[in-house]
Design a protein that fits this description.
The chain is an alpha/beta fold. The protein is about 40% helix and about 15% strand. It has ten helices and eleven strands. The strands form two sheets. Strands 3-2-1-11-10-9-8-5-4 form a nine-stranded parallel beta sheet. Strand 2, helix 2 and strand 3 form a beta-alpha-beta unit. Helix 1 packs parallel to helix 10 and helix 3 packs across helix 5. It starts with a strand and ends with a helix.
Length: about 300
């Protein structure tokens, strides 16, 4: 079982270069597989309460929360590591130019020797879209097209693409990723629509705030959509963050057995689940998570 780690998105830490270096060293020395950055370009002071993962529509952030650009942050963090894979959890893909983001991802994949993964999501904050001058409507159709356009740029030379939202003819996007099929695209979101998108287009699926039982239903959606698209359903790698559904769930053997009864490849934990903002506490969290996973796997 691969373990991914989210850092603390807190002032004085996440953008402190010495802190980042120690975070990466700690995670890598504990045998984790990957580190993950998150994205909001901005947060409106008075956003509509549309956040889909809480009862009141408000996101779990306060004045101490800091979210640096995930690709810039991962680029910096990658320089301190030789083995850790790099993921986004997630970038709001419809807010970006797919041509520019494809180039940035390919560059990071090259500089990290093929360690990049890109988690993509639709986002929920209308005010953020408005500030970026991007339509909030039809963002799902836009994301589907952007994924296809990025893959064309990564795998064709010259590349051509003709869609509703993006078009280019016989262009070269150098550099290209080390990974021959392009940077793996991991579709985020806990809805049936997100799971179906992962089945049709994704290399992976990474839901948020989802129970083992609901995840099982989403896996069914993935498999049906993949089969309908002529793809291998088993080729969609499954990632889950148990602690987003139930705080510190990765330390609960009963809960983890329910997750691990499913074909999951990666478990993500967040540093704040250590309950103390220290690296010894992070080491303990990672070691205990590994022990619980191993014990749960033996009892399946």
């Amino acid at each position: 079982m691969k373990i991914g780690v989210l850092p603390l998105f807190a002032k004085g830490m996440i953008c402190n270069p010495d802190w980042v270096a120690e975070f990466v060293a700690t995670v890598e020395s504990e045998g984790a597989e990957s580190i993950w950055g998150v994205e909001h370009v901005l947060i409106a002071a008075d956003y509509k309460p549309n956040y889909p993962y809480s009862a009141d529509g408000r996101m779990p952030a306060d004045e101490h929360t800091v979210m640096p650009d995930p690709l810039e942050w991962l680029s910096f963090a990658a320089a301190f590591s030789r083995t850790l894979r790099l993921g986004t959890s997630v970038i709001v893909l419809p807010q970006h130019s797919p041509v520019q983001i494809a180039k940035r991802l390919a560059t990071l994949d090259r500089l990290s020797n093929g360690r990049m993964m890109v988690g993509v999501g639709l986002g929920w904050q209308e005010e953020e879209y408005a500030a970026l001058n991007v339509p909030f409507t039809r963002r799902g159709a836009r994301m589907d097209e952007y994924i296809r356009a990025m893959r064309a740029l990564w795998t064709e030379a010259p590349a051509s693409f003709e869609g509703e939202f993006v078009r280019f003819q016989r262009v070269y996007c150098d550099v290209r990723p080390i990974q021959s099929a392009g940077v793996p695209v991991i579709v985020g979101g806990s809805t049936a629509a997100a799971a179906k998108r992962a089945g049709r287009l994704g290399d992976g699926y990474y839901p948020y705030v989802i129970s083992p039982e609901d995840l099982a239903a989403r896996i069914g959606d993935i498999q049906a959509a993949a089969s309908a698209a002529g793809r291998d359903p088993g080729a969609v790698e499954l990632t889950v963050w148990p602690g987003s559904w139930q705080f510190r769930a990765s330390l609960d053997g009963d809960v983890m057995r329910r997750y691990l009864a499913l074909p999951i490849s990666r478990v993500v934990v967040a540093m704040h689940e250590a309950q103390q903002p220290t690296f010894p506490a992070l080491r303990e969290l990672l070691r205990r998570t590994r022990e619980v996973i191993d014990a749960a796997a033996r009892r399946r």
